[in-house]
Design brief:
Layout (H helix, E strand, L loop, with lengths): L7 H6 L20 H10 L2 H5 L2 H14 L5 E2 L6 H8 L1 E4 L3 E4 L6 H5 L11 H14 L5 E6 L1 H10 L7 H9 L1 H25 L3 E6 L7 H18 L3 E2 L2 E2 L2 E5 L6 H5 L5 E3 L6 H8 L4 E6 L8 H15 L5 E5 L9 H14 L12
Parallel strand pairs: 1-4, 4-5, 5-8, 8-9, 9-10, 10-11
Antiparallel strand pairs: 2-3, 6-7
Helix pairs in contact: 2-4, 4-7, 8-10, 9-10, 10-11, 13-14, 14-15
């Protein structure tokens, strides 16, 4: 298979030297882009868009036509996995994702199964293959999944939640039941991510979006333990090429050392943690991804550039940094602000990778 024309992201994730800091953005294909909104309107619904490999390919490539991004990320949704389990995913106006069949008792847990990616999730795997062909090795493609615990939050709550009362009640009153859900989810995520790798994903990311809602002890038992299980089951190479992995736990700064020791190649950070402090803590164990506050993109382009400079300086010189936001782009973000961010990273970061001109 031909080599990547731009492998900066892969090298950074593996802590290898790069000429500059690579940049990609969580939710870089999404509602802030007018071209995405036009494609979404043509599709008729979010699910119709996500379940069409051709349209998913179209929107995955849209931000790369606008910006000098160093990676594409598969356009999909973390809830494809529980939907494939038969939970009946739908999107209610003004309410976000919901499930017709939430999992709240032993009977509903007994009905869960590990989906076959080649059947129930075929549309995602086909999209990965189609996106890889369309990219033509221009930049790497990132595949992804929700973590077992984050998926369980939606499955048990029946959708999004403000307080996660239902899953936490299960956690404390029926922990064995929640563990059964998490065991199934872990096997499903392993199969799903490995199928994405086989179809052409060149890096994979695990979004533990809701791990930060747990107590110190519960995080280790119900989130991190299952993320570790997923990482242990992932293909580390495909066609002789190394496939890096990234773990992102929103609000996970308190457990950074544990997450860094989980077996991933890189750890994503939200905007509440100093990259410099994080780097001192993990030393050379993993690369770090992040972590500009997405709300900074609502400031002037000069302010965006200043914040990019601050984040780069916080990490400092040397390999192992992937520039990203500390969470996904807001749908209200001005596209010009994203251009300012990407351009600033490419303009300012080379100095941190040149031993003769490293800022001190």
């Amino acid at each position: 298979m031909p080599a990547l024309q731009n492998d900066t992201l892969i090298r950074a994730l593996l802590r290898q030297p790069t000429p500059y800091t690579p940049v990609w953005l969580m939710r870089q294909a999404g509602r802030y882009l007018p071209e995405y909104r036009a494609t979404r309107q043509r599709a008729g619904s979010f699910l119709a868009l996500a379940k069409s490999p051709t349209l998913a390919t179209e929107v995955t490539l849209q931000p790369l036509e606008r910006y000098r991004l160093d990676a594409a990320i598969l356009f999909s949704d973390i809830l494809t996995v529980p939907d494939a389990m038969g939970l009946g995913l739908y999107f209610a106006d003004g309410e976000g994702p919901r499930f017709h069949n939430p999992v709240r008792d032993a009977a509903s847990v007994a009905k869960l199964f590990v989906p076959d990616p080649s059947r129930e999730l075929r549309y995602v795997i086909d999209a990965v293959s189609e996106i890889r062909r369309a990219l033509n090795n221009r930049v790497p493609l990132i595949g992804f999944s929700g973590s077992p615990y984050t998926l369980a939050c939606y499955m048990v709550e029946g959708g999004g939640s403000e307080d996660f009362r239902t899953i936490k009640t299960m956690l404390y009153s029926e922990p064995a039941l929640l563990h059964r859900i998490l065991e199934i989810n872990a096997r499903a995520v392993i199969d799903y991510l490995n199928a994405q790798i086989e179809a052409g994903a060149q890096a994979v990311m695990i979004f533990d979006t809701w791990g930060g809602n747990l107590s110190h002890a519960a995080f280790r038992e119900f989130s991190l333990a299952y993320t570790r299980r997923v990482l242990a089951g992932l293909k580390r190479e495909h066609d002789g090429v190394r496939i890096p992995s990234i773990v992102f736990t929103k609000g996970g700064g308190l457990w950074l050392s544990d997450i860094a020791a989980s077996g991933s190649d890189a750890v994503g950070l939200d905007w509440t943690m100093s990259l410099g402090d994080a780097r001192k803590l993990v030393k050379d164990q993993v690369a770090l991804q992040g972590n500009m506050d997405p709300m900074a993109l609502f400031a002037s382009t000069d302010a965006v550039r200043t914040e990019v400079a601050r984040v780069l300086a916080d990490f400092g010189a040397g390999p192992g940094h992937v520039f990203n936001l500390g969470h996904g782009i807001s749908q209200f973000t001005p596209p010009d602000s994203v251009a300012a961010l990407v351009d600033a990273v490419h303009a300012l970061s080379p100095a941190y990778h040149d031993g003769d001109s490293v800022p001190r």
